[in-house]
């Protein structure tokens, strides 16, 4: 369903040398082990706010540097205050080091007008080594039923997949399943579903860190429910289950229960070899716009 | 499907005066605000280990005391080392206080032979006030298809629902859906499902704290997959979506993907009025016994 012969493949960026890697770069402070300076890029904003998945990828990179294991296995993030483009500092703590798994904590801070640190997001995570896992898979999960890459809808087809002036649109190659894109023309399905093919715009392949971005990069399922709502994340937990194969990801997000002004968003991420590579769930508020 | 006229109803314990409440009691240390002493009861063990949901309820109670909002909305727990019955201390931190939600962190420690604190579980949680939420519900979720309370299987019917010498069996009134109890007689369904009616044995009604126990109190779905495996929790995140009505809960747990020695367990909790009151997901390891 996806062919590498597409014209843009020639200019493909690689893991380690891409927009995503440059914009999630961290620098450990001299004399302060586990403390990393970073710059939140304006390239990953939705309207004015920095995307929560981009933030998570940045924190995930810092934890990967701080912990002895390289890959996020489960990452729980609680979102505290809205982030803005500009300087940030990530403070990590090694909580426990084990043979198979290590657990760490990290907070990302920005600065108020007096230079005081303001916490944006706090994360607890357990890391391991995906390459060290046995290859056994026993699953009843099946990839989402959705049209081929070519038959899904990119921004060139009409309405922007994310409304407003959102820089992140240019960093992603997001092709929505037409069945979940009706909201863009005033005809939401009402089912609370969102499905898309996902790639970084410069063609960089997916890896565990970019999947922390991917799980929070689709338009909100609330749009497909017919709500004109802003749905800020309260908490987002992501399980990275397998290293993704090269090629675009398929992401399927479902909301089943909107109650008392809160909703869950369950995401599954599938790679080009039909493996379930990540699962996530977030609790979000539904705030009428 | 459930009738209050059952004979045990006369001796029913109440919220605040029950085994569960006594065994999750905490005492704030004089002069150390936010630090709580507790005693892990031997009554909630599975074989030798203290149940992870019981631990979570204890930490949840401490956070409820430390934060200005009473109810857990989303609780992310990373399990570090195995707990044993005996003294423990819970150290809490107020991370952020907002109007609708507050976020806190807590760690539960026990003590090594030199009296040094050993961290058992670390928790990030956002709390709110369930009673303050509007009553709107918009959902496509439906209660699990399972037999009535009377037609599910309690311990009196034959094999213990949890194998081994497990004290927790006496604290719970757990009635398994026969369709997910076949493993107890050597005939697992292979589907990775577990469903049960759930009550505390002394008849105390459910509340948000007891639901933190409930989501981790059923036999592991691995048994229904036909695995003889110990599946320790790496991380467990629970969303409490609504205050449960009196009466037994129905809990449905599903595992779809066992890969690389890890599996997810997704739980839904339904109350006696057919409301979805909690959702949880855990990442667990599958270790052959």
UniProtKB/TrEMBL annotation, chains A, B:
Coiled-coil residues: none
Annotated ranges, domain Acyl-CoA thioesterase-like N-terminal HotDog: 41-126
Gene3D superfamilies: Acyl-CoA thioesterase, double hotdog domain
One Pfam family linked to the record: 4HBT_3C
Positions of the Acyl-CoA thioesterase-like C-terminal domain: 164-284
InterPro entries: ACOT8-like_C (IPR049450), Acyl-CoA_hotdog (IPR042171), HotDog_dom_sf (IPR029069), Sec_Metab_Biosynth-Assoc (IPR052389), TesB_ACOT8-like_N (IPR049449)
Protein name: TesB-like acyl-CoA thioesterase 3
Provenance organism: Streptomyces virginiae (Streptomyces cinnamonensis)
């Amino acid at each position: 369903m996806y062919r590498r012969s597409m014209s843009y493949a020639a200019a493909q960026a690689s893991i380690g040398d891409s927009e995503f890697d440059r914009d999630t770069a961290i620098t450990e402070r001299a004399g302060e082990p586990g403390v990393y300076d970073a710059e939140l890029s304006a390239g990953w904003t939705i309207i004015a706010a920095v995307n929560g998945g981009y933030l998570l990828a940045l924190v995930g990179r810092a934890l990967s540097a701080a912990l002895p294991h390289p890959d996020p296995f489960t990452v729980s993030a609680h979102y505290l205050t809205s982030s803005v483009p500009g300087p940030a500092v990530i403070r990590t703590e090694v909580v426990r080091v084990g043979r198979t798994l290590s657990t760490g904590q990290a907070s990302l801070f920005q600065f108020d007008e007096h230079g005081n640190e303001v916490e944006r997001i706090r994360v607890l995570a357990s890391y391991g080594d995906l390459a060290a896992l046995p290859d056994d898979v026993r699953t009843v999960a099946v990839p989402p039923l959705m049209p081929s890459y070519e038959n899904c809808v990119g921004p060139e087809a009409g309405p922007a997949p994310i409304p407003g002036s959102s820089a992140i649109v240019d960093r992603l190659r997001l092709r929505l399943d037409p069945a979940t894109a009706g909201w863009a023309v005033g005809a939401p399905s009402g089912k609370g579903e969102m499905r898309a093919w996902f790639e970084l715009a410069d063609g960089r392949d997916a890896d565990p860190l970019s999947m922390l971005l991917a799980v929070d990069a689709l338009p909100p399922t609330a749009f497909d429910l017919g709500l004109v709502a802003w749905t800020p994340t309260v908490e987002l937990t992501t399980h990275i289950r397998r290293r993704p194969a090269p090629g675009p990801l398929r992401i399927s997000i479902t909301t089943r229960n909107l109650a008392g002004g809160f909703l869950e968003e369950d995401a599954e991420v599938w790679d080009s070899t039909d493996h379930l590579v990540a699962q996530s769930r977030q609790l979000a508020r539904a705030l009428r716009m």
